[in-house]
Structures are given as structure tokens and as C-alpha cells.
Write a structure and sequence with these properties.
elongated; two-stranded antiparallel sheet; mainly alpha; 13 helices; 347 residues
Length: 347
Amino acid sequence: MSDLSNSDLIRVPDDSRRDPIDRLTRTLVLSLCGLVVVGTTIVNALFPLPDPNLIGEEKNQQAKMRASARLGDGSFARWVEVDLRVTSRVRRLVSKPYASFLFKHLQEVRGTALLGREGWLFLTARARPPELSSAVMAERGAAVLSAVDRRLGRLGSALLVAPIPRKSVVYERFLPRGVQPRGEIEDLFMKELAKRRVDAVDLPALFRREQAQILYYPTGTHWTQTGEVVAAEAVIEHAGLLAPEVERRTELRMVGLRPRASRRDLLRYLEVELDPAYEAELRSLELKHFEVFDSAGETLSTSGPSFGRLAIVGTSFTAGSRFPELLHHFAQKPIWDASLPAVHALT
């Protein structure tokens, strides 16, 4: 082994001889960081925001996380992080401008969502399924519904399943490059339901055929009212209850292009504030708005239980939407709307 000369050694800078400007810069940076941390802590501690009014599954998950928080395993730190997201006054002040800057200038959003082509937004969890076999996922879901079907059959009721396809599957062409939503999950799920003799409407196949009508809001998680109309008619027709148009006492009418609030729920979730130009671009999209009118020309409402022979159990896709009224229109039968937002469909 040859000896190393002084020229072969890496020289480590001597901190004692560091330029005074460097020391001053380091001191200023550390001091400012410390002031920001201390100031943020004081503001959040003395002037916290009120806790959000959670409902359904989100409320249950938060209560469970709070009850299981422990210092030793890091769950308490995780709980503090989650709590600060909703109660930090400083975060509310700076998060929207920061998120809006990233969205507008760098085309970036939080990891919980994906920004695709032409401004389409997708939930990451729905566009990137878990690392589990597609066949296993389909089998598990179908097995649960098969058990529900048998239970309802013993009670004298019939189950009709209407699986809502994922937005990322129907509009895969708008996903970011490299994202694979594994659309075969929906196809395998329908096959598993058929194997178990569970009656189901093939909405995944229908939505793929009708995707040109814009069935989902580009910047939201839910289907458009056009999607509701397409699905409602398919459900009633599959059930053999489609009333002839001449016998309908209600009228389905397009009343304009005004948007529903949920068309931008993902933007609000990501805390992105729209500038006037982008706002105008969103409003220019031809998204149809429908209403169902009764024989007196009044807007039809099926709010509250009607205890009809047809009942709908769903999530936020059907709760608070025009879907129950659309089912009533196509079937001309009363609908008991038991849909609940923010909960699992089988709750």
C-alpha cells in the first residue's frame, strides 16, 4: 500500500476561520427558524380554530385515533399532526396561497390527489389501488355483497347492486403518465357478482361507453348530473321497472348549465383558490343541470322516508343529489332514500 501524500487528503474547512458573514448568515437563519416555530406555537396554542364538525366514518376514525394515541409508538405525534391540520390558525392563513401557487405555477398538488391532463384531478387512493391482487379484491367485495343478498332474501327483499366505477377508470386517458388504475378490478368484480348470482347493473361498462358525456366533474370526486341520469335510467331499466314515457306523470328537464357545488370538491379539499381566469374556464364547461318536475310544474323532492317498495342505500354519490328523484321519474314509484354521506355503503 502506497503512502498518501498531503495532496491526496481532503481538507476539512476550519470552522474557527469561517468568514464572519457565513457565521452571521447561519445565526440569522437559525434565529428566524426558531422565531417562526415559537411564534407559530404561541398563535396556535392561544388562538386555535374550532374543531370541525365531522360526521359518519370520519368522526369514528378521528375518535379512534385520539383514543389510541400513545407517546411510545409515535401515534401521539401523528395525532398532533392531524389535529394541527384542522385547528392551526397559522396553517389556514398560509396553506391556501401556498397550495394555489403550486397548483397554478408548478402544476403540483398534495399527495392525496393527482393532477392529470387538461386539469383533471383524481384521488390518489382511487387511482392507485392497494398492492393486492385484483382478483382477490373483486372476490372479497363480491363475497360481502353475496352475504347481504342472502340476508335480504330471507327477509323477503331483493338486492340490486349498482357498482359506481372509479373516475380514474372511466377517464383513464386524463390520468398522469405512468398511473395504472387497474380497470380490470371493476370487470372482475362484476364477474364475481354474476358467479354468486347477485343481481347487478353493469355501470362500469355503461360509463365507459358513455364517457363522452362527461359523467364526472373534472375537479371533483363525484359524478355529474348527466352521470346521475345515465345511472338512474340504467338501474330502473335493469330492474324491469322502466315506465313508458307516455305514462310518466313527471318531467325530466334540462334547466341550464349551472354547476353543483361538488364539482370543485377536490379543489377545496386541496385548498386551492381559483383565480378569475380559471374560474371562467370551469364555468365554460358544458355540464348540464337537470330537474324533475311533477304534474303541477313544481320541482320534485323525495327528501325523507317515503317507505315505498324501492329503497336506495348509498353514499355521498346519491345522498343530497337528484338521484332519488331520477329513480322516481324513470320508475314512477315512490323511493325511500336511505343514503348517507361520509359512510360506507353497507353501514
